[in-house]
Design a protein that fits this description.
It is built from 2 helices and 2 strands. The chain has 103 residues and is mainly alpha-helical. The protein has a domain of 71 residues. The chain has a two-stranded antiparallel sheet with strand order 1-2. The radius of gyration is 26 Å and the shape is rod-shaped.
Length: 103
């Protein structure tokens, strides 16, 4: 038979281990949610730029040659502190390559 003090110690260790496991699982869930949110924001920014390029094409008959043109004439907000932008103009009647990635 175990001494009551030893039983309390084992119970405390099990409780501490359980709490650490719960904290670890919670932190992983928060991290995954954060990363998912960042990915959704980048996708949203990329879709906004593509939509503006398509709108420009429908209004002007040509895709814009640069992000600067979209910013100046269509009010696109570019946050260069948060994202890297890849915009490659291919031709007036060809959809430009548009990619957004986090810094």
């Amino acid at each position: 038979m175990m001494a009551p003090g030893r039983l309390k110690f084992i119970a405390s260790v099990i409780m501490l281990a359980s709490m650490l496991i719960i904290i670890f699982i919670s932190m992983n869930a928060v991290r995954a949610s954060w990363e998912s949110g960042i990915g959704l924001r980048m996708q949203s920014v990329e879709e906004t730029i593509k939509t503006a390029a398509i709108y420009c094409y429908s209004v002007e008959g040509a895709y814009p040659e640069s992000l600067a043109y979209l910013r100046e004439h269509y009010g696109i907000l570019i946050d260069e502190n948060a994202y890297n932008y890849h915009y490659r103009y291919v031709g007036a009647n060809v959809m430009p390559e548009i990619r957004v990635s986090s810094k």
